[in-house]
Amino acid sequence: MRFYVYAIHTDETRNRLHDVFDNSADAEALEKHMQEKIQPGDNYFVTMFPAENVDEARAKADEMRPLPQLNS
């Protein structure tokens, strides 16, 4: 299992994968660092989660979105 750090967008724009780690400690450190950079009004939040592969990670990230992504 790998750990994915994503910026999950709160609008219709595409989620952004920041990095992938083999251990949760490194993923949590990046998650915390990225969360500290978020400014009021930013259209995303940062979270880390485990997944078996990139397709599963993308699906999990999309499930966390409050709005669906625009097709473009």
What does this molecule look like?
The chain is α+β, with helices and mostly antiparallel strands and 72 residues long. Helices cover 33% and strands 31% of the residues. The chain is built from two helices and three strands. Strands 2-1-3 form a three-stranded antiparallel β-sheet. 17% of the residues are buried. The model has no long low-confidence stretch (mean pLDDT 93).
Concise overview:
The protein has helices at 24-37, 54-63, and strands spanning 2-9, 16-21, 44-51.
Major sheet characteristics: 3 strands, antiparallel
What is the count of β-strands? 3
Runs in which pLDDT lies below 50 for 5 or more consecutive residues are none
Question: What is the SS-derived class?
Answer: alpha+beta
Annotate the secondary structure layout.
Layout: E1 2-9, E2 16-21, H1 24-37, E3 44-51, H2 54-63
Antiparallel strand pairs: 1-2, 1-3
Task: Based on the model shown, name its key terms.
3 strands, 2 helices, three-stranded antiparallel sheet, 72 residues, alpha+beta, flat
